[in-house]
Fold each of these.
Amino acid sequence: MEILKSAVEKLHIHLTPLQLEQFQNYYHEIINWNTHINLTSITDYTDVQIKHFLDSLTVAEAFDFNKRSLELIDVGTGVGMPGIPLKIVFPEIRLTLIEATKKKTKFLEEVVKQLGLREVEIIAGRAETTAHDILYREKFDVVVSRALAPLPALVELTLPFCNIGGCCIAQKKGDIDKEIEQSKKAIEVMGGKLHRIYKVELKEFNDNRSLVIIDKIKATPVEYPRRPGIPGKRPIIS
Ligand code: SAH
């Protein structure tokens, strides 16, 4: 994990031996499971360190995760990105992971056990339904997501989880200005307000990565999110 260790220094993160061991175990779990079931296309040792772990940790540039007892949910976490790397580095986070694919949540359960992570809840389900559950609706200080959906659909899948005063941080690639333009209405309808677009400027990435930060300023109307699949199929576009 030497590549990760030195790369994250630029994010002002100094990994301890325990954290490095956790990342190493996480890498092994990904590789082992990937030989049986297809979980991710990124498997090369260097690529996992950069494209999965370092990329996930760039979120820490835009938000202070050292705040105490932070409730964080990662929507469409896949094999745990960015939620698990954030939890390894900031162990006090109270983490919830939601993922629609069962084989991925099985994997996540095993990772959490192997890495000895505490206060991690894994939900096998869709954001559209879970966001209507009173246990999870408007209960999180921070909602993170990476590669989940185009922004208009993404805000419908994430903002309902966020408490008023909290924020959503979406990891995005490519032409973000156009996506933002198309998302203005959806952001407003869901009770959000665009706070900031943070450009990720690391030499490891050259594909216009950014972090879109949306504040939650008022409650999401009860009819949102709409039924499973609808936010993606009929996004609210401005
Ligand atoms: N965040 C991860 C995975 C991105 S792929 C990463 O960056 O590596 C998107 C993931 O979101 C997939 O695993 C998919 O199963 C999940 N997903 C897509 N739509 C979802 C929804 N509506 N609710 C929950 N999970 C969803």
Amino acid sequence: MPHDDFAPGSVWLVGAGPGDPELLTMKAVRLIEAADIVFTDALVGPAILALIPPHAEQVSVGKRSGRHSKDQGAIDALLVAAAAAGKRVVRLKGGDPSLFGRAAEEIAALRAAGHPVDVCPGITAASAAAASAGLSLSLRGVARDVRFVTAHSQRGEALDLDWDALAKAGTTLAFYMGRSAADAISRELIAAGMAADTPVLIVCDVSLPSEKQLTTRLDLLGLATRALADKAPTLILVGEAMRQLTRAEIREPIGSKARADL
Ligand code: SAH
């Protein structure tokens, strides 16, 4: 079926999912294949970049914590310039563009400059981690609340989060960008009343061949994160719903992925 939703001079923010190209939506693949230019994030891996057609220009504007290769204003300006040049522009973002992806700034900059912009959702890291571990983020009678939390802070600053609210019973917490804040997350949640033995799942490189998972408890979160995560993107899931794992999974690891217990 022909599509007329990608005119020259328009922009799609496209969710690339967690890394496995099979976790792209069909729409994402179609948009990537139709693009004249694709701006990519550091989190978008090689298997997905390989889908960018040879005729399309590929521009990496990746940011990794602490090493901002381009600031957000510069990225906005590049997107606007590409749209103004009449190109079909794809802005490829890890996971889902609406979660911790600076989508709002890019949408605002493009709209302000008069360029059409749309969003194609993607599978966010927390969903992919739950799927990979074979567990449910919400759990009847245990977790009726699921929070997506960014644990990113400016270098050296304390995390500015409402720990009392996060520590409430019946919640599953998905911490993004939490690797360097793991000690603080553990300390603050316990200080706010969360049990020290609350189960935790740490997952690096979700959905990639290099994926690693580690099951631990809240008071060991800092130690466990250091043991597992080096530079890989790391998602931390905290909450009683993770007991689904501590009961069943260690005896029978899923697939061939590295799985450990600490
Ligand atoms: N928009 C993205 C999140 C961007 S913030 C999404 O929806 O997933 C970047 C953080 O996302 C990383 O620091 C990490 O916490 C998490 N993340 C993204 N991809 C990941 C992956 N493949 N494995 C583990 N964590 C991932």
